[in-house]
Amino acid sequence: MRKNASSHSGRIFSDRKWIIPFFASLLVSVTLVLTAIFGTLSSSSGGEQSHFDIISFSRSEDSNGYFVDSDLERLLNASVVRKMEAPRFAYLISGTKGDSHRMMRTLEAVYHPRNQYILHLDLEAPPRERLELANAVKADPIFSEVENVRVMSQSNLVTYKGPTMIACTLQAIAILLKESSEWDWFINLSASDYPLVTQDDLLHVFSNLSRDINFMEHSHIAGWKLHHRARPIIIDPALYLSKKSNLAWTTQRRSLPTSFKLFTGSAWVVLTRQFVEYCIWGWDNLPRTILMYYTNFLSSPEGYFHTVICNNEEFKHTVVSHDLHYIAWDFPPKQHPISLTMKDFDKMVKSKAPFARKFAKDDPVLDKIDKELLRRTHRFAPGAWCIGSSEGGADPCSLRGNDTEFRPGPGADRLHELFQTLFEDFQSKQCL
Predict the structure, then answer these.
(1) Domain range annotation of the chain
(2) What is the tens place of the pLDDT at every residue in 47-68?
(3) What subcellular locations does the record give (predicted)?
(4) Which residues in 170-204 are b (16+ Cβ under 10 Å) and which e?
(5) Which class would CATH give 84-222+258-429?
(6) What is the pLDDT of residues 140-193, one digit of tens each?
């Protein structure tokens, strides 16, 4: 045994073929370790960069004089200003039975070739309506040319106050992340939402904004909401039934979580790509843990993203507490938005918000918004990308030009004024 073992060992050490691969591997390993060490040292020596170091509110020739606010720049520690590529938005527009035409109208009002769009008509809509929506998108020459509008082929049954709305939103985000890597903010709208500014207005203003800022109305859950939403345990029938029904309530009540704080706010959000990627990938497991908690939570769409972002150290300081919507609520408050009409038009404009909800189907105020705010005479709200002739009533957006150029109008002025107000007390309204 000893003899054989000694003989075998001798053969190993007498074979010199292993020497060259061994030293080559050793050299590569040492190089990688040194590169990692020096890379870490160089990044740490460069100092920590603020989330808002790329916001520019100084007057310049290419900003058309919109952002003139050095005090705001100092407030947000904007020490470095750099020119960036024009931003892009990724929209989810959702609807239910009978909403396909309203969804198309909202889509055309917010359409821009730079953006991405995904439409979800839930399972309550008949297959024929869903097929008509898909065919309308497929047959559109602009949509076919740019290929930036999609209809979700897998329809989900969605209960507004239940977790199925969150599941549908996360699925749409995952599809948008998979299909396109070139967008900066995610915006969710319903068929009853409508824009109050053009996409040229919106893109122009967001061009001067840090790509790290999230817009989400939020507050720490307390008072009656703590009692009526955090304590009860509900079941969303849409998770296991094929037809809609009301949420089911259990007799049990839960205690509050101790590993994270609960937050609440508006279900309508404008979220950065970085944050929604974190919600999908969840590398520290927090988004999944909170998603499981909100599975049995009343009005989970008004709490899931809010709780995730406010419990994460990387993102909690990036939130502006506003949903960028004008919403009129009933009184006495029953937490139901009232339908907006002509009498609300001036209030919508004065709010300076880029979106409003909710609108009844084909309400006359939508035509007034098209005419006076969006300058929309054809299918799309006009922008600098529309370079066709308008002679004889022709649609100038039938011919597509450079989508990196914008023609901002009064809507950009209003939105800029709103942002100035929001950022003035931005730090006092962060997650607490």
Answers:
(1) 84-222+258-429
(2) 433 333 333 333 334 444 434 3
(3) Membrane
(4) bbbbebbbeeeeebbbbbbbbbbbbbbbbbbbbbb
(5) alpha beta
(6) 999 999 999 999 988 888 887 889 999 999 999 999 999 988 899 999 999 999
